[in-house]
Amino acid sequence: MCTMQTGTQLTKMKGKKKGLVRFFYLDEHKSCIRWRPSRKHDKAKITIDSIHEVCEGKKSEVFRRYADNRFDPNCCFSIYYGDRVKSLDLVSTNAEETRTWITGLKYLMAGISDEDSLARRQRTRDQYPLSADKNGDGTLSIGEVHQLLHKLNVNLPKQKEADTDENQGSLGFDEFCSFYKMISTRRDLYLILISYSNQKEVLDLHDLARFLENEQKIKTVHCVLFVDASCSNNSLPLGFTNYMRSPAGDIFNPEHNQVNQDMTQPLTNYFIATSHNTYLTGDQLLSQSRVEMYAYVLQAGCRCVEVDCWDGPDGEPIVHHGYTLTSKILFKDVIETIDKYAFTKSQYPVILSIENHCTVPQQKKMAKYLREVLQDKLDLSNVSVHECKKLPSPEILKGKILVKVELFLPTHTITITHTRTHTHLYAIQTSPDYSRLSRALSDLVKYTKSVRVHDIETQAFMSSWQVSSLDETVMNQILQLKPGELVRFNQRQLLRVYPSNYRVDSSNFNPQSYWNSGCHMVAMNYQTEGRMLELNQAKFSSNGNCGYILKPKCMCKGAFNPVLEEPLPGHRKTQLVLKIISGQQLPKPKDSMFGDRGEIIDPFVEVEIIGLPVDCSKQQTRVVHDNGFNPMWEETLVFNIQMPQIALVRFQVWDHDPIGRDFIGQRTVAFTSMMPGYRHVYLEEMAESSIFVHVAIIDMAGKVWHYKIHLQI
């Protein structure tokens, strides 16, 4: 750590250029790597918690562009970081220095990953007074306090009884801590504590058990240890606050952080996390193709990746987008990356969706690399299927990679024919020339044979050992004309839905309408952040983010029409009663013109139900003016939901503006993953920011949902 904080000269590699010598060092808080000189100035940094992996040697795409003898591999290392998995490629002057950085970074990464969320939030909170002391004199002047409060998004009267020592006009550290406790006392939590402790301000085990059963709807508590801290003036007892702000008080069911669904059913009974144009870092015209994107999506829980293969120079097949004018990557490098990362996040099967544009000779080379690199991951000889007409389960296929090969075909077309009693819908492709498909490559395909869609109705009764791909334009027409038939089709074979070719910006469609009809593989552009990808992430988070979600029973067997007013006749509706109580440390909008110096926000909360068409709705609270630090709403929103098994609940916080509204943050949770009772809803990628709610889930017969959960507090 000392060596890293002192800093060393390292060469930063970039493209095929000579490289830039920069001074790299670990900051004083051991929270990020910095370097200088840089045109980015203070922004030239990589935070430790954004690092995915540190690799020794010349393994990155950047290093591969240089001659093999250019650098000593023992002096080279790469840092993979960020949401889109960029690489920082560095060369040191000696192997010992390289080992110091690799060992140190891995140590720091382990510390970050093991640190619980509460401790991380506490560390962030402790840095507030340090950063506010502009002149470094160890105290905060009244002006510095007001600047800090403005940054914290709170507007308070100028007179507060915190300056108690002889040094009037400024606050020392202890005085500031008292002042912060004064303004941050949670009235909402305090009232809950008082109501269950018989006005004692302390919860004993009996009080806690009563609170957990009555409010949190937890029937059985195992191994509970509750530590209460002494109560100082104007402060809430620390033990109860820490518990309510810990993962145990989060709205997300902690048991859903692991696989909790039946994984022994046929593949057709699952939604599968699927990536489109996996290799791209951005849009379809100018962005780069990078092997690191396969590592990124697989570690994000994706279980179906796309590989677009073309003939390359020197007989080596390459991967790139047909429209892309920039980089290309070797097929072999892609397969090696998939082999390395396929089962780091999930042990359930990966589907390799190959869009094949190659000639037969290069297809043979592809088959050779697949066999040599993936080896026993391709061997399905020991997979036993009891019913030959059904696909095997994710459990049986653990650790296996399924190959799907599709010859490049023209765009699908729709044909509709009418008879006196029926309307027939056909999605037609040209008859592919299978003489163009290498036998060596086709022999690798077993359970995921790529077939064209010709008739939604009749094909629903054919073999299930096949998969079809349709773009969103065709799918939308089928959904409009034959939604029930599409559900039945999806009960028999796998179906992949991918974005239209017109989405050259790599934007994402709304996946929910395709999930509603039971489509298994709804392909998303993982490189494009935003609302649609957030829905996808929420969907697959409810089963340990393993990439597989069990479909509702009504989608797996029998008739079901997702667009009807009553899709489940005879089934009781579920009522969701949400009380939006308060907010905590809500920031100013990211794109605020003046940043932290901008106006204090006027927040409100919008809650949206995303599911079947009949269930989709949204409601919002009133606006609280001039308070992003601890706004209080105390408003109740009520939603009636016919099919909660497939619904998502999206919480969004907005800043009201006379000419519109600005987005603050969001959290989306699968309905089935929501915990009842008093819960914090932490906004995504915001360690401190949350809204505090009360959740009640009731079926229309009046039965309240309970949970039997083992807690370790």
UniProtKB/TrEMBL annotation:
<dbReference type="GO" id="GO:0005509">
    <property type="term" value="F:calcium ion binding"/>
</dbReference>
<dbReference type="InterPro" id="IPR001711">
    <property type="entry name" value="PLipase_C_Pinositol-sp_Y"/>
</dbReference>
<feature type="domain" description="PH">
    <location>
        <begin position="2"/>
        <end position="110"/>
    </location>
</feature>
<dbReference type="InterPro" id="IPR028393">
    <property type="entry name" value="PLC-eta2_cat"/>
</dbReference>
<keyword id="KW-0807">Transducer</keyword>
<dbReference type="GO" id="GO:0016042">
    <property type="term" value="P:lipid catabolic process"/>
</dbReference>
<feature type="domain" description="PI-PLC Y-box">
    <location>
        <begin position="441"/>
        <end position="555"/>
    </location>
</feature>
<dbReference type="InterPro" id="IPR035892">
    <property type="entry name" value="C2_domain_sf"/>
</dbReference>
<keyword id="KW-0378">Hydrolase</keyword>
<dbReference type="InterPro" id="IPR018247">
    <property type="entry name" value="EF_Hand_1_Ca_BS"/>
</dbReference>
<dbReference type="GO" id="GO:0051209">
    <property type="term" value="P:release of sequestered calcium ion into cytosol"/>
</dbReference>
<dbReference type="Pfam" id="PF00388">
    <property type="entry name" value="PI-PLC-X"/>
</dbReference>
<dbReference type="InterPro" id="IPR000008">
    <property type="entry name" value="C2_dom"/>
</dbReference>
<dbReference type="InterPro" id="IPR002048">
    <property type="entry name" value="EF_hand_dom"/>
</dbReference>
<dbReference type="InterPro" id="IPR001192">
    <property type="entry name" value="PI-PLC_fam"/>
</dbReference>
<dbReference type="Pfam" id="PF00387">
    <property type="entry name" value="PI-PLC-Y"/>
</dbReference>
<keyword id="KW-0963">Cytoplasm</keyword>
<dbReference type="InterPro" id="IPR011993">
    <property type="entry name" value="PH-like_dom_sf"/>
</dbReference>
<keyword id="KW-0442">Lipid degradation</keyword>
<dbReference type="InterPro" id="IPR001849">
    <property type="entry name" value="PH_domain"/>
</dbReference>
<keyword id="KW-0106">Calcium</keyword>
<keyword id="KW-0479">Metal-binding</keyword>
<dbReference type="Pfam" id="PF00168">
    <property type="entry name" value="C2"/>
</dbReference>
<dbReference type="InterPro" id="IPR015359">
    <property type="entry name" value="PLC_EF-hand-like"/>
</dbReference>
<dbReference type="InterPro" id="IPR017946">
    <property type="entry name" value="PLC-like_Pdiesterase_TIM-brl"/>
</dbReference>
<dbReference type="Pfam" id="PF16457">
    <property type="entry name" value="PH_12"/>
</dbReference>
<feature type="domain" description="EF-hand">
    <location>
        <begin position="133"/>
        <end position="155"/>
    </location>
</feature>
<dbReference type="GO" id="GO:0004435">
    <property type="term" value="F:phosphatidylinositol-4,5-bisphosphate phospholipase C activity"/>
</dbReference>
<dbReference type="Pfam" id="PF09279">
    <property type="entry name" value="EF-hand_like"/>
</dbReference>
<dbReference type="InterPro" id="IPR011992">
    <property type="entry name" value="EF-hand-dom_pair"/>
</dbReference>
<feature type="domain" description="C2">
    <location>
        <begin position="556"/>
        <end position="685"/>
    </location>
</feature>
<keyword id="KW-0443">Lipid metabolism</keyword>
<dbReference type="GO" id="GO:0048015">
    <property type="term" value="P:phosphatidylinositol-mediated signaling"/>
</dbReference>
<dbReference type="GO" id="GO:0046488">
    <property type="term" value="P:phosphatidylinositol metabolic process"/>
</dbReference>
<dbReference type="GO" id="GO:0005737">
    <property type="term" value="C:cytoplasm"/>
</dbReference>
<dbReference type="InterPro" id="IPR000909">
    <property type="entry name" value="PLipase_C_PInositol-sp_X_dom"/>
</dbReference>
<protein>
    <recommendedName>
        <fullName>Phosphoinositide phospholipase C</fullName>
        <ecNumber>3.1.4.11</ecNumber>
    </recommendedName>
</protein>
